[in-house]
Amino acid sequence: MGRLMILNRLKLAEDNPMLVATRGRVDRAFDLVDARVRDAEYLAGKTFTTADIMTGFSLTTMRYFQLYDLSRCPNVVKYLGRVSARAAYRRAMEKGDPGMALLLS
C-alpha cells in the first residue's frame, strides 16, 4: 500500500508499468483477504488477533491517506463491520482519533 501511495503522488501515467504492477499486487492482496474472511469470522478463524488489528487499520484509517474502493470485496466490508463492532475497537479509535468517521465500506 505504501508503494501505491508514493506512485500515486508522482502523478504517473495510468499505463506506467510500475503503477500497473503495484495496483495488481494490491488487488491480489484484497482478493486474498476477501477470500479468507468469506468463511472465517476473523483472519485467524474465530479468534480476534493482532492480525485483525493491523488489517483493520490498513483497511479503514489508512484509506484517509490512500483511497481505494472496497465495493469489489463484499466479504472485506462485512469483516470490517465485525471488527468495528467490537467495543474495544471503538474505545481504541475514540481514544486515538476522537470523532474520526470510520471508512468501513
From TrEMBL:
Q: Name one GO molecular function term.
A: transferase activity
Coiled-coil annotated residue ranges, if any: none
Q: Which Gene3D superfamilies match?
A: 1.20.1050.10
Q: Where are the transmembrane segments?
A: none
Q: Which InterPro entries match?
A: Glutathione-S-Trfase_C-like, Glutathione-S-Trfase_C_sf, GST_C
Listed Pfam families: GST_C (PF00043)
**SUPFAM superfamilies in the cross-refs:** GST C-terminal domain-like
Which UniProt keywords are listed?
Transferase
Residue ranges of the GST C-terminal domain?
Answer: 1-102
User: What protein name is recorded for this chain?
Assistant: Glutathione S-transferase
Instruction: List the taxonomic lineage.
Output: Bacteria, Pseudomonadati, Pseudomonadota, Alphaproteobacteria, Hyphomicrobiales
